[in-house]
Amino acid sequence: MKNAERQAAIRGFIKYWKDRGYEKRETNEFWLQLLQNVLNVEFPNISFQKQIKIRKNTYYYIDAYIEQTKVLIEQKSSEKSLSDETFQQAKRYANNLPHDEHPRWIVLCNFQKFLIYDMNRPNDDPQEILLENLEKDYTKLLFLVQSNNNHITKEEEISEKAGEVVERLYDALSKQYKDSTNPNSLKSLNILCVRIVFCLYAEDAEVFGKDQFLNYLKDFQAPYLRNALMDLFKVLNTPLDKRDPYLGEKLRDFPYVNGGLFADEDIEIPNFTEEMRDILLTQASQNFDWSKISPTIFGALFESTINPETRRSVGVHYTSIENIHKVIDPLFLDDLKAEFEKINQLPKGDSRRKKMLLRFQDKISQLRFLDPSCGSGNFLTETYISLRRLENKILREVYSQGFLGDIVNPIKVSIKQFYGIEINDFAVSVARAALWISESQMLKETEDIVPVDLDFLPLKTNANIVEANALRIDWETVIPKDDLFCIMGNPPYGGYVYTTPEQREDLALVYLYINGKPYKHSKKNDYVACWYFKAAQFMQGTSIKAAFVSTNSITQGEQVV
Predict the structure, then answer these.
(1) Angle at which helices 295-303 and 425-447 pack, to 10 degrees?
(2) Quick check: 499 and 524 in contact, CB under 8 A?
(3) Enclosing H/E stretch for 114
(4) Strands 58-66, 47-55: parallel, antiparallel or unpaired by DSSP?
(5) Distance between CA atoms of residues 561 and 550, nearest Å
(6) Kind and range of the H or E element at 53?
(7) Would you write out the chain's pLDDT as a tens digit for each of its 561 residues?
(8) What's the Cα-to-Cα distance from 242 to each of 229, 231, 252, rounded to whole Å?
(9) What is the β-pairing status of strands 105-109 and 113-118?
């Protein structure tokens, strides 16, 4: 089918199904037309009313199922909403299918809207596609007929490739330092990599001009790249009105970043080789799109460039997005989502609805979170993204009736709500950058809902990540306990047999009686138990919630006593 023919067929499909759709009579017709006319499948292989057995002599029927691509479809009439209850019903059906028929995708549809859930990412919000937008969005439905298609998300794959690019760049740079084992040189290398990655992301996400970083650097041969980067970093850290009026045009056009990311002008930058120039300009910039990375995943992959021995000694962990949600969903996110759904069930004409939604937005914008072992910040980043997506749902409902007058910045949820403690300086830098990148991505999502230009630069919010040993610092110096809502994270695990002398000293300093005397068996506890002990002390007399990722050994051994 030629493109013009396809577009005409899609327009006809939209016109035919606009303002209609009765589940009982028209489901089959709707999906057959969609597959044939919109997605160009001549003989659609779709089953309707697929029978499943829930209990003995109890059968239910799945509205539609596409076996080839493992898609389960739950259809509602056009006047019905697609609620979380509908999704839970579809999941119950999915769980009662034979294992090899479990769906990769669950699609909720009411003829006017599709909600698409990728079951490989069970805690992500669904992708929404409106019938009226199908002419431009039909490619997002190709997963229905292409088993190898993943239009919903490729974040993990993209982020892993980004990690590989960073590792090549990191290794090449480290070889150029006079002494890469020198602490100051190593710190400079870490800062340099964070800055470069931020610039790569900024040009692809159009925080800078499109390809602005690439176009600036490609004018310089390898021996001159070092000075070119030093000049650029200085400019990025200088407000526009304080810059040298005689700067060249390409440097002058870069925005002011702020936030401290480019503040240290004395970092050590080595000379570049032709190989390093190729990695930076071709592999990292020209041939890779950084705007699609997941800051949650990439932050951990970026951090993994640290020497493996260092990782083991400080207990750096990569917690998957799925496992992060196993902690934060029952801890607070499920309740917040349920509260939103309850408000959202009010009729759109109810005068209380908008006020309650805005009050709920105020509520989530006042919550404060602490990860006292934050590493690359993936718990903080994923929690921020989850709250911002919830806020975007609120904004979509608040502004669904149109816009009156000028709209100021409608966003209230901020990375200022998130606090972390981390002992490794590189991880601190990565965590801050990951939060800034996630902030940029979420601004884009909000701009698709509310017609307002939201400037990302200069950075207006600092990520509250403190470089310190969380077991030797008073957490109230990071955030007052009366302001805190939740403590969460994945503290470093270490059985007491494998603890280092410094870690055993941490154990002795943490496990103290009120009179200051050490617990008798404190040095026989697992290292991770320190975080439980400090969190329990910190929570006394407050309403703070807490949850950590740990092995089941936390319930065994001396620490139980």
Answers:
(1) 160
(2) no
(3) strand 113-118
(4) antiparallel
(5) 18
(6) strand 47-55
(7) 556 677 888 999 999 999 888 888 899 999 999 998 898 887 788 989 888 877 767 788 999 999 888 999 999 999 998 988 899 889 989 888 887 788 999 999 999 999 999 988 777 789 999 999 998 888 889 889 876 544 334 566 777 788 888 888 888 999 999 887 888 888 898 889 889 999 998 999 888 998 999 999 999 999 999 999 999 999 999 999 999 999 999 999 999 998 788 887 788 999 999 999 999 999 999 988 888 888 887 777 676 655 444 444 444 445 778 788 889 999 999 999 999 989 988 887 788 899 999 999 999 999 999 999 998 899 999 999 999 999 999 998 888 766 555 567 789 999 999 999 999 888 888 898 889 989 988 988 888 888 777 777 777 777 799 999 999 999 999 999 999 999 999 998 765 555 677 777 777 777 765 556 666 666 667 788 889 889 999 999 999 999 998 776 666 666 555
(8) 19, 15, 11
(9) antiparallel
Sequence-ordered list of residues with C-beta below 8 angstroms from that of 478, at least 6 positions apart, any chain: 370, 419, 421, 464, 466
Coil, helix or strand for 60? strand
Give the number of other Cβ atoms within 10 Å of residue 179's Cβ.
Answer: 9
As a whole number of angstroms, the distance between CA 134 and CA 6 comes to 11
Q: What tokens were used for 453? A: 């230009």
Tokens representing 235?
């400019």
Q: Closest by alpha carbon to 395, among 385, 405, 403?
A: 403
Cβ(371)–Cβ(377) under 8 Å? yes
The amino acid sitting at 138 is Y
pTM: 0.70
Please list the residues that pair with 518 across neighbouring strands. 512
Tokens 């982020």 locate to: 159
* DSSP-derived 3-state class of residue 52: strand
The secondary element (H helix, E strand) that includes residue 62 is strand 58-66
Query: Distance (Å, rounded) from C-alpha 90 to C-alpha 102?
Result: 11
Instruction: Name the residue with tokens 């829930």.
Output: 54
CB 167 within 8 A of CB 307: no
* Cα distances (Å, whole numbers) of residue 380 to 122, 319, 372, 489, 529: 19, 12, 10, 8, 21
